[in-house]
Amino acid sequence: MNKHRINSIAKVFLLIATFTLLQLNSRAALLPQDSLIAVPLGGNSWVSRGSHAQIDSTGLSNWSANTDVVSIYIRLESAGSLNIALKLLVPDGSSKISLTVGQTTLTKTVSGSQQAIINFGKVSVKTPGYIQVKLQGLKRSGKVYAQVSDLLLSGPAISNGTTYVQDNHGNYFYWGRRGPSVHLNYSLPDEAKNTAEWFYNEVTVPVGNDVLGSYFMADGFTGGYFGMQVNSPTERHVLFSIWSPFNTDDPNSIPDSLKIKLVKKGPGIHAGEFGSEGSGGQSYMNYPWVAGKTYAFLVHAQADVASKTTVFTACFKPADQSTWQLIASFKRPSSGFYLKGLYSFLENFDPDMGTVQRKVFFGNGWIKDTSGKWYPLTKALFTGDATANINYRKDYDGGVKGDLFYLRNCGLFNDFAPLKTNLIRQQSGKTNPDIDFSKLP
Q1: Does domain 3-167 correspond to CATH entry 2.60.120.260?
Q2: Which of 80, 225, 241, 261 could form a Cys-Cys staple with 331, CB 3.0–4.6 A?
């Protein structure tokens, strides 16, 4: 048994003992002790209204305004009675705070500068799925209402399992608040698995789903990815990146022989290096793409087996236009292969936006091999990232609507799709893209 597991077990027993003692001292009715869980606010809460309260790895702090509402989310696999407590301290004075689940609001006056577990009482959960626990300050005599680290739950409603970010190993409070990323892993025909030279895909973000912090990645492949982002309320990017074969998060540590080399870039394109999530070459264009409109993405691979290098080139355009815009070409060392490992993904890169749902459609995907033959991409495997796979978040979805694949994530919705589901879309009689390769920039 590893050290992390031992510490987790010890923490659970300590919480059970503390909670039991508190209940006995207050002569409150005891619920089954073996069903007690602690939900850390650091990875499961957001300030849903207001601007004073803050969430960090220790939980809720700077909670001073009665207009602030803090929301904690957890998925329950059962209906039934749920007993709720908070682990908190009040640095000075006393505070009256409310806790709301559905239509039930519980209030408590709390005080004490030492961390303690405060039992709020019971609520009734009508159906399985995500619940929202809302905290709001009502009255205080000190500077803040409280500092809250954990939400403690017990009772029949958690008896069949729960989903929440359990701890911060691997920085999962950050990743959990971002929400699960979801992917479409495309199946290539056997005869084109080593000769796919071109990758064409179309992306449509439904109106209202262009949420801040979203990356709608159209053309992913071994070594790189290409898609469009919502970077701020006023800025949007079309982004193309190539990873270095040297595994590091610091681009300055990459040897010259393993650096990504910029071959060319289009007008107005920003190009440089990136780090933190691997390292390599990155290019992007500020472009005011809009929800509800379809955009086309095209990637070309020029493989040189002798030198073991591949030049990857990305072009972009609105699907209803004929002129392609060059984003960039990068030469990648230690390669010498064509396009492989093709995929698309949807992610949220802003932890504060992890409670907002977003959706995207991918369709009319094709590859063209070195002999000039086109193949439609009609099969994909739906997968999720580590946050989804370790059951820290379950608001993920992927499927087919007519001749389109779709991906959906975040928003704490309940109708999730099972991971590793095989998907097949209709081709609807569409022919391959009409591209004049001689006119590409």
Answers
A1: yes
A2: 261
